[in-house]
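Cross-check.
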Amino acid sequence: MIRKLLLILSGFSIVFIISSIKKTNANGYFEGKIEYKNEFVIKSNKVDSAFLSRIFGKTATLFFKEGNYLEIYDNGFMIEQMYNRENNKVYIKKTQSDTLYWFNCGAPEKKMLKFEINRKKENILGIECDELVTYYENKIVSFYYNSDTLKINPEWYKNFILSNKNLNTKKMKAIYLKYKIEYPDFIATVTAVSVNWQKIEDRMFAVPNNKVLIEDN
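Predicted model, tokenized:
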């Protein structure tokens, strides 16, 4: 269940509107804090927006550094999601308990049927973006990005096979400005409301030694 929800939320972690352009590292890769909101479009009577908001929350705060990220949700099924690049695992906190659920991001993923890149497809928050569209058997996932804005190193995710993150980041070489996932019953999008370039402490991505760790199978 957790892994399935993460695949929907995997992209919700990294979209933005620039509020500060001060770079905090020598290579120009993004490091900082991003605030964003989730929105839903309903396509059938099998689900409603209130239910989706309860599952995924309405807003989130992301802390990002060198591929590591910690996302804190305002509401929903998950309270926190943290990716530790060193061990290539995601850790999920569902409640205010001492339990963390984890899974290996090197696990096999569903095959991407095809992809396409459409240049200068959309202008988002004043930034001209290309569109990466990825097609799967039961969903379409689209990313809107500018390769010169909020750059990342694709090597950070070379082992992140889950959700095909390794392939997508290799194509974009940047954090995306917009993420959209379309299922037969609904469309979910992520909209950034602020981004700040700032130093992030490494300890934010350390696995706590006082938590109960349970593998999600």
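The chain has a mean pLDDT of 86. The longest strand covers residues 31-42. Passed to J.P. for a second look.
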